[in-house]
Amino acid sequence: MNEQKIMVNCALPYANGPLHLGHLAGAYLGADIFVRFSRLSGTEVMFISGSDEYGTPITITAEKNNKRPQEIADKYHSEHMETFRNVDIIFDKFTRTTDAEHVKDVDEFFMNLLEKGFLEKRYMVSPYCRKSNRFMPDRYIEGTCPYCGYKEARGDQCDNCGRTLDPIELIDPVCKIGGERPEFRETEHYFLMLNKLQDSLLEYLGTKDFWKPNVLKYTKNFVSDGLKPRAITRDLDWGVPIPINGYEHKKIYVWFEALIGYITGAREYSTEIGNPEYWKSFWLDKNIKSYYFIGKDNIPFHTIIWPAMLIAHGDYNLPYNVPANEYLRFQGEQFSKSRGIGFTVNEILKIADKNSLRYYMASILPETGDSDFSMREFQDKVNSELVDKFGNYIYRLISFIDKNKLSIHKPEKLSGENKKILDMFKEKFDQYSQELYEIHIKRGLQIWLELVISANQYFNNAQPWKIIKENKEECNDILYTSLKIAQYLILMIYPYVPTGASEVWSMINNTVKIEGSTFEKLLSIDEFAIKKQNPPFTKLDFGEVINN
């Protein structure tokens, strides 16, 4: 079931504003849970993301704030890194597309495709602002989507239906900066000849029947409509330079160059750990599976554009799985950084701890459809499940052993209910592992919660507080079984709430840490060092926030 080595990449967030809960739900939390589970399963993982810093969202933010784009990128790159650390999302490398190494990688990729005939110069019609006397990037233009009627569609994509667009397709287009209707003028650019790659792409997609139905359906519908050449350069000042003389006033467009950041991040990480060739064992070995955790709006770029680019290049691994999530909604609307809908991660961390936030967000991940964020549900779910059920089980067990100054040892033989429940836990753990291996994050959490309920029922029915007066050896067997149950529960919740789980683990074992070890090794431990302390999970009380 488990692979020896995998590569996990996360969509590069635009460095133009704070991360909100929709970002966590869309890409990053699920990826981190999957990575932690995979490492505990004994799999070697390279985990990469980074800041997308050349996108037009950065220049829009810069112009609105009278700043240079680099200032905006610097600010939010640092902020994003801190935010991820604050919620225990730890990448091997969080790269930047403004890094010099990234420019080198983009240059190589561009020239490779040009030499192979997959890039061609063509003319296109682009929006032009007479007021500022310049061509406007796609994202500077907004209007009504011609496919679904959404009135705030961008010139490159509609966030509502997910369609990729050209600005000229928009109904009633206007410039976001000046508010005027743009002109459309001819300009010369380099195009990625997607039409030449359609057959190879369809053959590749034919092997992906295990992808999420929503991802596969969207992708196949997009390709079956026929792929057309797509411009990969723009009339911009901010971006990766085109590595050809005579194109100094144009730049490589963000949707092409940012994807190459996954390769840059892998190379940079390899250099940082003193093994510069390490990245090749992930990117050049065709047997290595690569996973791309993204949000719904990134589907076409990762299931069509990026595979097409990689096919054209010829050297690199194609995506194995693209487990894109749908949207997180708040009060009926999609979380949006640009429109200020919902909460930022840092806002929530002022009133809730990271263990609680990760737990609740994992339970509502929009894996197969949009999901809703609710402050009341957040509070109630954490208090009922993480604190009352799991925390209480651990506290009762540890307190009883500590109060009676017991030293628990492994019985010569377990029988009856003790053996029965541990056999059941082993079976359920295998089910949990299969669910997480298939990236069913919510199902894995549901299995864990069912086991927490079973653990409490077992402890209540076994009544060690009575048995200790009658048969100390039988009481030892009950408590040993209860501690083995605790092992399962702690290790299974670790990918979801790593800091909290590690603290609980230290209450039963202070010699071996979870991080850096494996399920197999940790579940084989039969000696326990009990340390009484309050579990790290506390009840939430949002008070008036719930009603606002």
Automatic annotation (TrEMBL):
Motif ('KMSKS' region): 334-338
Binding site for Zn(2+): C145, C148, C158, C161
EC number: 6.1.1.10
Signal peptide: none
Keywords linked to the UniProt accession: Aminoacyl-tRNA synthetase, ATP-binding, Cytoplasm, Ligase, Metal-binding, Nucleotide-binding, Protein biosynthesis, Zinc
Pfam families: Anticodon_3 (PF19303), tRNA-synt_1g (PF09334)
Protein name, entry field: Methionine--tRNA ligase
Organism, scientific name: Acidiplasma cupricumulans
Gene name per UniProt: metG
